[in-house]
Design a protein that fits this description.
Elements lengths: L3 H14 L5 H15 L5 E8 L2 E8 L7 E3 L3 H9 L3 E3 L17 E9 L2 E10 L7 H18 L3
Antiparallel strand pairs: 1-2, 1-6, 2-3, 4-5, 5-6
Helix pairs in contact: 1-2, 1-4, 2-4
The structure holds methionine sulfoxide.
């Protein structure tokens, strides 16, 4: 059960993206609202699946060297392949981790599921260890749903 504050973010994103005409406009509007939600979110972005490659989409945060990620690499690749949200409390202990910034300590990756197909993902890095809660996960999974449903219409 997500709290009112988190529910409000989901609703605000649904309202903001309803009028956006293209995929990139939808993702840009959503990423800006997600990034603003918490100062625990130090890099917030999308990766979209193009064939077998995750290609970086709109993001808020420092430039990442990982603009294209193969499905067998990184926490991003693992979440897309397993089609499940992954939370890593300490990226330094996870051998899959591809560093976008040396300050990152924890990460959440939430797949954008279109039925049984992953079309992309929301990726958030935090400079704090264990920054992501199960409430964040629920909120971001709800955000993923509203985004996928809007992407059907653009
Ligand atoms: N940390 C990710 C790579 C993307 S950057 O964090 C933006 C991973 O391990 O897949």
């Amino acid at each position: 059960m997500i709290d009112a504050h988190r529910r409000q973010l989901v609703d605000r994103i649904a309202a903001a993206i309803a009028s956006k005409p293209t995929r990139d406009d939808v993702l840009r509007a959503a990423v800006e609202l997600i990034a603003e939600f918490s100062d625990r979110f130090d890099w917030t972005g999308f990766y979209m699946l193009e064939g077998e490659i995750l290609v970086v989409g709109p993001y808020v945060g420092p430039p990442t060297p990982h603009t294209r990620i193969e499905l067998n690499r990184g926490i991003c690749g693992a979440a897309a392949t397993q089609q499940k949200t992954i939370i890593v409390d300490d990226v330094h202990t996870d051998p899959r981790f591809l560093a976008c910034s040396i300050t990152t300590r924890s990460e959440i990756v939430v797949p954008l599921m279109d039925g049984d197909r992953c079309i992309g993902e929301i990726d958030i890095d935090s400079n704090r260890p264990a920054a992501f809660t199960s409430e964040d996960r629920e909120m971001l999974e709800a955000v993923a749903k509203v985004i996928v449903s809007r992407l059907h219409q653009v």
